[in-house]
Amino acid sequence: MAGLTRTAGAYSVTPHKISVCILLQLYAPSAQMSLPFPFASVSQHNRLGLYLLSLTKSCDDIFEPKLEDLVNQLREVGEDMDAWLIDHLTNRFSSLTSPDDLLNFFTDMRGILGSLDSGAVQDDQIILDPSSNLGMFVRRCILAFNLLSFEGVCHLFSSLEVYCHSSSAQYDASNDNLESLIQHDQMDMEKYIMDKATEEIELHKNASGSVPFHLHTPKALFKVTEGLLVTRKEKSRGNTKKTEATPLACSSSSTVDDTLVDESLFLRTNYQIQGFLMEQANAIETHGSSLSSSSIESFLQKLQNLAPELHRVHFLRYLNKLHSDDYFAALENLLRYFDYSAGTEGFDLVPPSTGCSMNGRYEVALLCLGMMHFRFGHPNLALEVLTEAVRVSQQISNDTCLAYTLAAMSNLLSEMGIASTTNVLGSSYSPVTSTASSLSVQQRVYILLKESLRRADSLKLRRLVASNHLAMAKFELMHVQRPLLSFGPKASIRHKTCPVSVCKEIRLGAHLISDFSAESSTMTVDGSLSSVWLKDLQKPWSQPVFSQESGSRKSSTFFQFCDHSVSIPGSVSQIIGASYLLRATSWELYGSAPMARMSTLVYATLFGDTSSSSDAELAYLKLIQHLALYKGYKDAFAALKIAEEKFLTLSKSKILLLKLQLLHEHALHRGNLKLAQRMCNELGGLASTTMGVDMELKVEASLREARTLLAAKQYSQAANVAHSLFCTCHKFNLQIEKASVLLLLAEIHKKSGNAVLGLPYALASISFCQSFNLDLLKASATLTLAELWLGLGSNHAKRALDLLHGAFPMILGHGGLELRARAYIFEANCYLSNPCFSVSTDSDTVLDSLRQASDELQHLEYHELAAEALYLMAMVYDKLGRFEEREEAATLFKKHITALENPQDEELNMA
Amino acid sequence: MFSKESCRNEIRAAIRQLSDRCLHSAAKWAGEQLVGIEQDPSHFTPSNTRFQRGSSSIRRRFSSTNESFSTPQLSLGFSQPPATPIPEEDEVVDGDLYLLAKSYFDCREYRRASHVLRDQMGKKSVFLRCYALYLAGEKRKEEEMIELEGSLGKSDAINRELVSLERELSALKRTGAVDSFGLYLYGVVLKEKGNESLARACLVESVNSYPWNWSAWSELQSLCTSIEILNSLNLNNHWMKEFFLASAYQELRMHSESLSKYEYLHGIFSFSNYIQAQTAKAKYSLREFDEVEIMFEDLLRNDPYRVEDMDMYSNVLYAKEACAALSYLAHKVFLTDKYRPESCCIIGNYYSLKGQHEKAVMYFRRALKLNKKYLSAWTLMGHEYVEMKNTTAAIDAYRRAVDINPCDYRAWYGLGQAYEMMGMPFYALHYFRKSIFFLPNDSRLWIAMAKCYQSEQLQMLEEAIKCYKRAANCGDTEGIALNQLAKLHQKLGRNEEAAFYFEKDLERMDAEGLEGPNMYEALIFLATHLKTNKKFDEAEVYCTRLLDYSGPEKEKAKRLLRGIRMAQTGFPSMDMEHFPL
Questions:
Q1: What does the DSSP 8-state code read for residue A540?
Q2: B39 contacts B48 by C-beta, under 8 angstroms
Q3: CA proximity to B214, closest of B192, B191, B190, B246
Q4: Chain A, 179-238: which have a CB under 8 Å from a chain B CB?
Q5: Which pLDDT score, from 0 to 100, does residue B498 have?
Q6: What pLDDT is stored for residue B412 in this prediction?
Q7: Which chain B residue's Cα is nearest to A386?
Q8: Count of other CB atoms within 10 angstroms of residue A884
Q9: Which residue of A has its CA nearest to B378?
Q10: Rounded distance between C-alpha atoms, residue A690 and residue A680, angstroms
Q11: Residues of chain A positioned with their CB less than 8 A from the CB of B153
């Protein structure tokens, strides 16, 4: 309300602050006071000081601790003299019997502060520096008390009484509530009980046939009432456990509980609350929807009741709703936050260096709104909003926001399939439009990224720089760089992606780890350190060996303290973790399985616990996929089970997707086409229906559909699906997917016996792979090409074999089980169809390959291929006259064939 | 059959009972209705009619249609089941202690009053004791709210008597030892504690057993936030129910339903100031300003020291830009009671009209100090901030209005306007959409939204056209929509549509007798368009109309006419130069 009630930085005296003051009096007794000095050692004294410091700074809750909690903590801190400290505290409180005592107390407090100019300090006297943290605390308390009106002092006094007797008072209050609750709907309850009772009676009647009415009714009645009362009691104590025993109980108690705020609770200082909210925001962002949204909502509600002018609450609520996928509530709260505070609240902790104008920060609102639309899958709306954000940021020259907006925009454009942006970006952003208005989407993404990177660099926004580098790496990975304006002889034309620059960008992104410190605000670091320190008090000591003597116990705490102080902020480690994930992805694309696996493992071990849950999920996903490809399905499904437990609660869980993928693959291999089709359909059903959203998923689904059709020998349909998929990929510029679609088309033609038609597709796929450096895919395309050549006739066997041998190192070094087996079988096939090759002389070359292939296919349960390998093997043995081995191979062959023909039987057996 | 006389008797008894229980505002309301009943012409005395003289003038001017059907309804409606009998007092003679307590209460010494009655067990005494306790708690709450106001607007001051009152009243209710007044108080307490459904049930029970307590009805009305809730109430038929429904409909923005209820009630309470004011309110929402102004003038003549609802009157005067009348009104309420939120609001309106926005803001703030939930003051303050180009503050003020009552379309509209001013039209659209949701038949809102779409940043012309169409269908009084529709179609090269809308716009201007650049534009376009389509006769008509005006348009019309002639004759003739014009 722009200053109608707000007095900035106001600070109020609360009972808890008085306790801290009392403890401070002990920590630094003034000369006039004749208190005994209770500390046995300097370290003990320091420990109390550290504790008090933490109390004034920690941000682990919105409420100040109650006396009870304080006493408990003192027990942890105080060691030998805890009893003494607690005694003193309670005595001091009981000596405050009138408002006048309070006045005197604060006058005394002045004594513990050293004056700024006094040079003569006695040796044994401890003096609180007025400009130290604790000194400031005392001064603020004294000031706030002096500003109080008499009414204020009276309020403080009465709340002190509540504070001292909080435990008992609270008990009374809850009893009151309970009583009134019961009276509320006595009628309903009586009715309910009667119903229950009659039900029970009827049950008895059915059971025994006779009704011992006079015995059972009162008992049943009593039982039910008792049950009700118990659940009520639990609820009114404010436990978060919701047992939901009866719908009646919760319906009546909820409203009353929410509106009544416990009077013995006071809010912490503004800084502490802001720090706490910031931590909560981080938690919401990292853990996503696995965090219980209702518990956050309840504390936000309390906070809003107590501090209606703290608008940050609305922002937190927005975050919470965003992560629990509640579009309308998220939108409403986002708008509300920016309407109330103009987006300036909560940012005041960061020095207002750049672009903070008097007009508020509505451009940040636009940025947030854009990202929200992005998350909810409204790409066009998001683009509109972000365009407006760019315009407004430029208008009021907020470069920071502009840099972030451009990054968000490029992210949006690269993630969402947007066919053309001419109408959207047309007039908005001059650097983009000035170069050319007919740029393709990728070129726009590139320009936006560059622009954002440049600004972020000059503004020293390290995190943004790092994430921009990663985005750039992703871009380089996926797109062939062409100069924007190429003319003249010097314009280099390379039609290849450049792995070196990808690597360079990833490294630049990871540089963040060395210089993140500039940005982190000291307030939150202090606050979170203090709360960690306080939490450690409650933890049981991990090393029982050291806890024998008190000296080392302290040193261990000290090290823990230090340990935390060098720890890396969550956001930094998240970005660095992301760089490892990206590294894994790029190795995956480039075709190095071991490197990809290693990067993922590094990520999972080092960043698994600090990263956001969706990133962690991705890492698990990659590892499981790796298992499925290289170790077979049994291991993969076992691992999937573990991952499912961990991640299935997430809102947009990719685990389900992975599961469907694995099941589909498995079904295809075992020849259970119906199941495969079903999985495929379910996969398609996961994608959003909006154009351009969930592109990856949609491509995946139709790719799998084509493969299923291919397996069912519906060649023309499969080719149709693949063709339309290729068109989609072309429209949305999905180059890498294009390569695999082309390969699939080649496969389809190969299987349909149309080798001539397949050749151009295979060649096209290979050239795509070359320009994007997709080595493994290229090897697999080469294999297909070789197969196509062989399909043209046995006179091409030599050429096919040469091609295969060229690709062999890649396939054997990095390929999965299926690819390797295929290569082996094909090699054998080549030899066998070569007229110059004689089985009798050179049988081992063929048999080795085939044996290898059939072993690997056993793991994969790929019946069709396994049968082929075994068939060939049997034939070779037959030629060689090794009948025993032939029979063995033949029986195995038969087994696979029957399994392939009756996939359902096997399902039943497994079940 | 129900007669005015019996109605009068009921109210007379009720007033006595209500004021005996210190329910002063309910008694006041009942008193107003009592003198609002038309006197029996056979035995009215001159003093009785003094209240009623003025309103006849307005009735003569506006009620020609109303009277025709309000009379038959009267007999229809009130011949319903026998009215609730007036309950007998349980303590016929008030005890001495009760008398003492009542006088304490009247001197606003609530705690003392409740203390005097501490051991009294009669229903009446119990009620007065609880009520006094409740008011004492409320008073303390108000004080605490100011004392405890912290940096973040901490306002957790609560009425500390609520818990004990709730306990006692619920115990009494269970034993059945509570009368309808006790039920009313219980309902109020429950509402404060947030238990709305139970509160509603209690209040319904209370008004069913004793319908003359208007305070109970208005509490009940504040709990009816949707029409579904309203319809689910199980209320006995009584003429008080009609009052309740009328006011509930008004709050739910069903203005015409509410108006018809008030007209119906007007048949019996023909001189009730309350009904007149409420009718004016409803008509204000329907934007019939002239009529509303006359009604308020009339009201003020009868009841010159009235402050209630006068902020609405000031809004009307503001809309009609009647500075002098507004200042007169402001002066009057200022002398009557300057510390009423309404008074501050009126003065704020006056300064706003005079363009002194800082002062206006000061008075709106004062109004808000007096009542933090005073909706219209927040909205009006937002308007002032917009005038002062302080958009941030304006947005804040509007948002507060919206959070108090999410149905306040003015504040939503204001939010949209403020964001549009800051060059964020796309962001503003959301707010315009909200405001249109609550008032879909207002052309101004549609036009505002269309302008947003049309802004140079967005250039979403198709959407703009859709909005203008809606505006034109809603009866656009300012005549922007048709003109814009025509221009937009022209811009998009759809000449047929453009011609259609220009023609419509021309018709409108002709009907209203307007002239101006829009007129020339329409005529020129139509003439050119018809000429290119070879409809020369019609084109000529428009050209000749243009000839009536002076300036460049005339020259253009001449040239067009020349062209038409040329085309008609089929060959370029030298004679054309000498064509007499």
A1: P
A2: yes
A3: B246
A4: 179-180, 183-186
A5: 86
A6: 92
A7: B426
A8: 8
A9: A1
A10: 19
A11: 5-6, 307-309
Q: pLDDT at position A542, please?
A: 40
> What pLDDT does residue A78 have?
66
Q: Does B114 have pLDDT greater than 70?
A: yes
CA closest to A360 among chain B residues? B392
Q: Which residue has the tokens 């063709």?
A: A723
Task: Return the closest-CA partner of residue B59 out of B263, B306, B312.
Answer: B263
- Name, in order, each residue with C-beta under 8 angstroms of B108's C-beta and a sequence gap of 6 or more: none
Exposure string (b/e) for B538-558, b if CB count within 10 Å is 16 or more?
Answer: ebbebbebbeeeeeebeebbe
- Are the beta carbons of A361 and A342 closer than 8 angstroms? yes
Phi, psi for residue B359 in degrees, rounded to 5: -65, -40
CB-CB contact of A185 with A252 (8 Å):
yes
More confident residue, B360 or B442: B360
Residue A212: closest CA among A661, B317, A203, A355:
A203
Pull the structure tokens for residue A859: 């793991």
Set of chain B residues whose Cβ sits within 8 Å of the Cβ of A8: 151
What's the gap in Å between the CA of B499 and the closest CA on chain A?
28
CB atoms within 10 A of CB B125: 21
Predicted TM-score of the model (pTM): 0.75
Please identify every stretch of chain A with a pLDDT value under 70, giving residue numbers as ranges.
Answer: 1-10, 30-40, 60, 78-80, 114-126, 166-265, 288-291, 343-360, 417-440, 481-495, 515-569, 649-652, 903-911
SS3 A458: helix
Res B65: pLDDT: 42
Pairwise CA distance, residues B421 & B379, whole Å: 17
Look at residue A691 and give its three-state secondary structure.
coil
Q: Is B181 in contact with B213 (CB distance < 8 Å)?
A: yes
With beta carbons under 8 A apart, name residues in chain A contacting B393.
1-2
A150 touches chain B (CB under 8 A): no
**CA distance to A116, A511, A601, per residue, from A584 (Å):** 59, 18, 9
Which residues in chain B (361-380) have CB-CB distances under 8 A to chain A?
365, 368
Task: Annotate A355-409 with DSSP letters as a single string.
Answer: S--TT--HHHHHHHHHHHHHHTT-HHHHHHHHHHHHHHHHHTT-HHHHHHHHHHH
Relative orientation angle of helices B55-62 and B64-78, to the nearest 10 degrees: 100
Is B303 in the A-facing interface, judged by CB distances under 8 Å?
no
Residues A419 and A732: their CA atoms lie apart, in Å, by 5
Residues of B within 8 A of A358 (CB-CB) are 392
- pLDDT computed for residue A2 by the predictor: 39
DSSP string, B444-479: HHHHHHHHHHHSTTT--HHHHHHHHHHHHHT--SS-
Token pair in block for residue A330: 């998220």
Beta bridge partners of A267: A63
Read off the pLDDT band of B349 (50, 70, 90). very high
CB contact under 8 A, B423 and A365: no
Confirm if A765 and A746 have CB atoms less than 8 A apart.
Answer: yes
Give the per-residue pLDDT at A417: 63
Given an 8 Å threshold on Cβ–Cβ distance, is A369 in contact with B365? no
Instruction: Please check whether residue A823 is in contact with residue A811, taking contact to mean a CB–CB distance below 8 angstroms.
Output: yes
Quick check: B184 and B219 in contact, CB under 8 A? yes
For residues B59 and B249, the answer to whether their CB atoms sit within 8 Å is no
Amino acid at the residue B167: R
Q: What's the rounded Cα separation, in Å, for the pair A793 and A785? A: 13
Question: What percent of chain B has a predicted confidence (pLDDT) above 70?
Answer: 86
Burial of residue B86 (CB within 10 Å: 0-12, 13-18, 19+) is: middle
The answer to whether the Cβ–Cβ distance between A362 and B427 falls below 8 Å is yes
Positive or negative, the CA dihedral A370, A374, A377, A379 is: positive
Q: Could you tell me how far CA A96 lies from the centroid of its own chain?
A: 50
| Model confidence at B69: pLDDT above 50 | no
Residue with tokens 């004689």: A838
pLDDT at A166: 64
